[in-house]
């Protein structure tokens, strides 16, 4: 008679705050024991010499989603979740994106229909709100938050998605009432628009000018404004995909003043620069994303933000578009930078990149790595402690890492459908070799062991970082939060 369905034996178990050398016992998809020399199990995995980490939680990715240009990503829920799993993830939270005129309820139903038959690991949805009508704000959104979609993203730029400050305040006030987490794409739309017109007037249309038009000053300004709006209504926000020191400094300053402002950054801001957008021919289009990669000084600044806790989460912002007329080059073989699909793939390499260059080179420690790639996302997005840690009672979600394994990145060995990797040729040390989701062996030694449709939808709790605030709490300084006072 076995005690456990699965036992992972003799590994070094790492969480955001602890290190244990012991076995893990799993029953019915949950962790039921953490101790040395556990009793018999139906299946045993020898993790000696390996690190057993909580499965990665990919909190920012675009899967089977239409972009701001109306273009479909090259990955669907099957290829994206397989790719995520090979990269050490056990949960993804992509976006259910509302385009103007869409009913939010219908949008969510459509995304469920896409994900249910295809996902191989667990998933939730953030919402993207581009049309905050009274119906959306008053009924659909509160109902969806209550049903477990407890976070959403808003855009301050992109013609087809952006909200003005008035709409942002409406959204933030609604988030305050419901306790939802608001993710903000912060870039100044008018600055981008104005610079784009000047560049195009001067005949400067090559991909590299995308990075010029999305200036770091515009990113810093919009970040400052987003923080001001969140302060006005006393609502937490997460500034996503931060690329520049200008934006990071705004976040840090707000945090130092005690405001509930959180930050996310991504691999493209550590490993790419604007020079990549100047590769020969149209190759620079492969690196066009918003905000764009900056320079080596910005990369160092972003590393500092990861080290000193300015950033709580490190996500891929996986937004895959093939390098052809179905994706990046949808507007023809030589499009101006204004007509290149925005986004880079990265769901499979997010963790190996940060492990190799961050942990391997001593920039962050292994506990920071776990916090940035799993635990903090679980807390921010209402999944903790079910996900994001290794503890009795938590889901049995693990990535078992071989810290010594070296591989050179080649897209042909990855599992997404972008057709290229921005990180091609990089030598990375430390890779996930076995990935387990709710006790199911998903990936082992390069093999996918589960069927499409075996991932489960996650109904999320309210964020640990954002609770409903119908009334002012005593410690809130009303002189600094006038907007919050009139709301309550
Ligand atoms: O360029 C990017 N990041 N595309 C994806 C959409 C977004 O804004 O996150
Ligand atoms: Zn964005
Ligand atoms: Zn994104």
Which whole number gives the mean pLDDT?
A: 95
Q: For the report, how would you describe the main beta sheet?
A: 9 strands, mixed
Low-confidence parts, pLDDT < 50 over ≥5 residues?
471-479
Proportion of residues in β-strands: 15-25%
CATH class of the domain at 55-380 equals Alpha Beta
Helical run tally: 13
Rg value = 22 Å
What portion of residues is helical? Answer: 25-40%
Query: What structural category arises from helix and sheet content?
Result: alpha/beta
User: What is the CATH topology of the domain at 55-380?
Assistant: TIM Barrel
Strand elements, count: 18
Gap between N and C termini? 59 Å
Identify the bound ligands. N-(aminocarbonyl)-beta-alanine, zinc ion
Shape: globular
In the CATH hierarchy, what is the architecture of the domain at 55-380 at level 2?
A: Alpha-Beta Barrel
Query: Going by CATH, what is the homologous superfamily of the domain at 55-380?
Result: Metal-dependent hydrolases
What does this 3D model show about the protein?
The chain is α/β, with parallel strands linked by helices and 488 residues long. It has a domain at 55-380: Alpha-Beta Barrel (TIM Barrel). Helices cover 30% and strands 22% of the residues. The chain has 13 helices and 18 strands. It has helices spanning 77-86, 104-115, 134-146, 165-178, 189-201, 208-213, 216-233, 245-256, 268-271, 296-307, 350-359, 366-380, 482-487; strands spanning 4-14, 19-27, 30-35, 41-46, 51-54, 56-61, 89-97, 122-123, 126-128, 151-155, 181-185, 237-239, 261-265, 313-314, 398-408, 427-437, 440-444, 447-448. The strands form 2 sheets. Strands 1, 2, 3, 4, 5, 15, 16, 17 and 18 form a 9-stranded mixed sheet that branches. Strands 6, 7, 8, 9, 10, 11, 12, 13 and 14 form a 9-stranded parallel sheet that branches. A hairpin with a 2-residue loop joins strand 16 and strand 17 (440-444). The longest helix is centred in the middle third of the chain and has 18 residues, at 216-233. The chain is globular and about 75 Å long. Residues 471-479 have low confidence and may be disordered. The chain binds N-(aminocarbonyl)-beta-alanine (URP) and zinc ion (2 copies). Residues 62, 185, 241, 289-290, 317, 319, 342-343 line the site of N-(aminocarbonyl)-beta-alanine.
């Amino acid at each position: 008679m076995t005690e456990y369905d699965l036992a992972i034996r003799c590994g070094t178990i790492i969480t955001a705050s602890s290190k244990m050398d012991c076995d893990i016992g799993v029953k019915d998809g949950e962790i039921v024991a953490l101790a040395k020399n556990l009793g018999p199990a139906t299946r045993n995995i020898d993790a000696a010499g390996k690190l057993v980490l909580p499965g990665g939680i990919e909190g920012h990715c675009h899967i089977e989603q239409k972009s701001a240009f109306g273009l479909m990503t090259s990955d669907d829920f099957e290829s994206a979740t397989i790719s995520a799993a090979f990269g050490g993830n056990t949960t993804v939270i992509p976006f259910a994106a509302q385009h103007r005129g869409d009913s939010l309820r219908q949008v969510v139903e459509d995304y469920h229909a896409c994900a249910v038959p295809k996902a191989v690991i667990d998933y939730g949805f953030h919402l993207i709100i581009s049309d905050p009508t009274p119906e959306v704000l008053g009924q659909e959104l509160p109902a969806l938050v209550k049903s477990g979609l407890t976070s959403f993203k808003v855009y301050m730029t992109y013609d087809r998605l952006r909200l003005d400050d008035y709409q942002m305040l409406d959204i933030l006030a609604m988030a305050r009432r419901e306790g939802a987490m608001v993710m903000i794409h912060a870039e100044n739309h008018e600055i981008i628009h104005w610079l784009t017109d000047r560049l195009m007037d001067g005949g400067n249309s090559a991909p590299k000018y995308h990075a010029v038009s999305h200036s770091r000053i515009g990113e810093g300004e919009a970040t400052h404004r987003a923080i001001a709006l969140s302060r006005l209504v006393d609502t937490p926000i997460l500034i996503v995909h931060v690329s520049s020191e200008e934006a990071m400094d705004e976040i840090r300053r707000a945090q130092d003043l005690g405001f509930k402002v959180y930050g996310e950054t991504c691999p493209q801001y550590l490993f790419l620069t604007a020079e990549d957008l100047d590769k020969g021919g149209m190759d620079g289009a492969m690196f066009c994303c918003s905000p764009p990669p900056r320079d080596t000084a910005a990369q160092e600044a972003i590393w500092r933000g990861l080290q000193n806790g300015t950033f709580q989460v490190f996500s891929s912002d996986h937004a895959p578009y093939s390098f052809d007329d179905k994706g990046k080059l949808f507007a023809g073989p030589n499009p101006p930078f204004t007509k290149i699909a925005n986004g880079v793939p990265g769901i499979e390499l997010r963790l190996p990149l940060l492990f190799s260059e961050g942990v391997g080179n001593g920039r962050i420690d292994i506990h920071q790595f776990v916090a940035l790639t799993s635990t903090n996302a679980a807390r921010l997005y209402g999944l903790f402690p079910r996900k994001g840690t290794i503890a009795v009672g938590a889901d049995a979600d693990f990535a078992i890492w071989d810290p010594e394994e070296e591989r050179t990145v080649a897209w042909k060995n990855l599992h997404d459908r972008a057709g290229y990797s921005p990180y091609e040729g990089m030598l990375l040390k430390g890779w996930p070799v076995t990935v387990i989701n709710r006790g199911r062996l998903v990936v082992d030694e390069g093999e996918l062991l589960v069927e499409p449709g075996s991932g489960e939808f996650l109904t999320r709790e309210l964020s640990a970082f954002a609770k409903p605030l119908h009334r002012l709490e005593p410690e809130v300084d009303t002189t600094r939060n006038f907007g919050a006072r009139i709301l309550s």
